[in-house]
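testing teh design pipeline on a random one, pls ignore if ur not involved
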């Protein structure tokens, strides 16, 4: 079993925020692979289904970004999913917009959603870091991540979502380096 987690904030006005790119990826996975209808469970919106031979759960925590770990811990304890089988999709300021880096473990690098997950389940899980770039014109980082994507960025995120779903079998096999290079070269 695998658990896909998309990080974001559950408010209507947050839907197109840079910080919500993880939610967008989960929505794309749900649609592409016809996962079940989203149901509110474990303090999140949960879907389930199969990708290839793998049973997959996908969740968008409703606990807000800074408390994402609460939702994840409840779910993995209930379904007895090892942290090593958790893959988290989230925004990353330190990566150029549109680029993706997948890795196992590591530090939160100041990302509060990742810090919350680390606190509740440890650091032994995979992360798919989606580049949103750095703020320009002295915009505060907190304000920047809560801004909506502009029109060009929205188109870019749609392309990234497609590239991720097109390469999901590589990610399901946990070949993180190959996944990163494949997605970035499309």
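output:
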């Amino acid at each position: 079993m695998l658990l896909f987690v998309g990080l974001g904030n559950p408010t209507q006005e947050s839907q197109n925020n840079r910080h919500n790119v993880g939610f967008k990826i989960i929505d794309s996975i749900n649609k592409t692979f016809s996962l079940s209808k989203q149901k509110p469970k474990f303090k999140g919106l949960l879907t389930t289904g199969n990708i290839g031979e793998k049973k997959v759960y996908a969740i968008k925590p409703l606990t807000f970004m800074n408390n994402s770990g609460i939702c994840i811990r409840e779910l993995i304890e209930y379904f007895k999913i090892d942290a090593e089988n958790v893959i988290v999709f989230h925004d990353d300021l330190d990566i150029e917009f549109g680029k993706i880096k997948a890795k196992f473990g590591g530090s939160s690098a100041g990302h509060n959603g990742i810090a919350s997950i680390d606190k509740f389940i440890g650091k032994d899980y995979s992360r798919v870091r989606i580049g949103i770039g750095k703020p320009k014109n002295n915009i505060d980082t907190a304000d920047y991540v809560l801004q909506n994507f502009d029109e060009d960025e929205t188109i870019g995120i749609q392309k990234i979502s497609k590239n991720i779903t097109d390469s999901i079998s590589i990610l399901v096999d946990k070949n993180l380096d190959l996944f990163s290079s494949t997605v970035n070269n499309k």
